Structures are given as C-alpha cells and as structure tokens.
Amino acid sequence: MRFQLICEPAARSAARDRLAVGRSRGRAAVTGVLAVAACGLAVTACGSQASPAASSTGTPTASAKSPNSPAAASNPQSPAGNSSSPASISACPTSQLSVTLTNTGALGGQAGGYLKFTDEGRIPCRMTGWPVVVALTAAGRATSAQHAQSTMFGAWCYAAPLPVVVLRPGDSAYAVVAASDEPAGSSTHCPAPYVRLRVSPPGHPDYVTISAWLPGARSYLPACTAIDGSPTAVISAITTLSQLPH
Fold it and tell me: What is d(CA 219, CA 111) in angstroms, rounded to the nearest whole number?
C-alpha cells in the first residue's frame, strides 16, 4: 500500500504557528519543517488546496487576477505596478536569479531543503511550474528529480492551477527538493549521495550548479532508491515561502 499526503490549509496554518520539530535518528533539530502537523498520511490522492493568495508589499505575490479588474486597479501594492498582469511580465531567466538551498533537514523518511530563487535583476519577473533539477553524485552519475505531487518534507501538495509568483527585485520564490533517506527493502544502506544540484528555473534551459549539502540533516541529499530501484529525488512546483513550513 502506497501512502500519499493530504494537505489541509487549516492544518498547514497551524503548523506554521508551531515552528519546532524534533529530529529523529540523532539528527539536529530542524526549524521550519512541520509537515507532520500539516499533512496526514492517507491512501488517497493529495487533497484539494486553495491557491496561494496575494501577499503584502515587499514579498513575492502569487496571483491569478488581472490588474485590470476593479480590485487590482485599486491595489497600489501590485508587484508589477497597476497596469501589468503576471502574464505580461517576462519569465525569470536563469541569469537574473540567484539559487540557494535553505531550510534543510529530514522528516518522515525524506531529507531535503527549499530551493530559493531570488530576483537579482532590476525588473520584476515571474515564475510558475516545476524547476528542472538534476542531482549529481561525486562520480558524476546524474539523476533528474521527478515532479512531485506531494512531499512529506516541506508539506507541499500539488493544487491546480499552479500559482504564478511575481518577483520584484530582491524577492524570492521557492521549490521543495527532497529524496528518501531510508534504504528500501532488505538493503542496509543507500547508494552514494548526491553532492551537487544542477538547477534551471521553469522554462529556461540555462542552469546553475549548487552544493547538495543539507546542514539541517548533516548529510548530502540522499540517493536512496524505491523498492523497485527507481530514484526517489523529487522537486515541487514553484511556490511562496508563506505556503511552506518555515
């Protein structure tokens, strides 16, 4: 029986209010990873989830509204100004972003962190969909992270439509990258871990390479496989930090 996650918005909000997680297997405490409180285990598919709402000034905004609507026209805090809709803003190119790995740790059989995409340019840009992440071992073995529908680490669940996150200069968007940290079946250990991540933002072929070290887990991103031998590394779609435990 395969377990998937049901993420409830109310539970996720409560999880963010209780920012403390006890690390298992002798690991250090991880701040901001409260997926157990946010997500219950179930044998059903990931439950429905409200789309992220627009955030306040100075933070990334996820919006499906056109600024030409009365509500948007009266909002002076629109990240791209009062006359630009998210669709009219260009997608964030790799050259305009810095990419770092934050909020790392391990929970519920997964280890990982949040990929943080920060707009280092002078103009707004937008992000939506799944980044492309290729995990590399020290020996150079490459594994493409699969699109997640849900993650235990980070308590993320897919919900349609995916948000369009508009970044002003200095703002950041996030995606959860995680992998199983437990050997499958009768195995007593996992293959050599991933030591680097090759990351491309959605819709752009150029990439940056960053370390896959997870300080919160005191390890590199695990390369453990499923019982059928398939890789377990996954990547979530782009979201805002307000939608993740932190």
Answer: 9
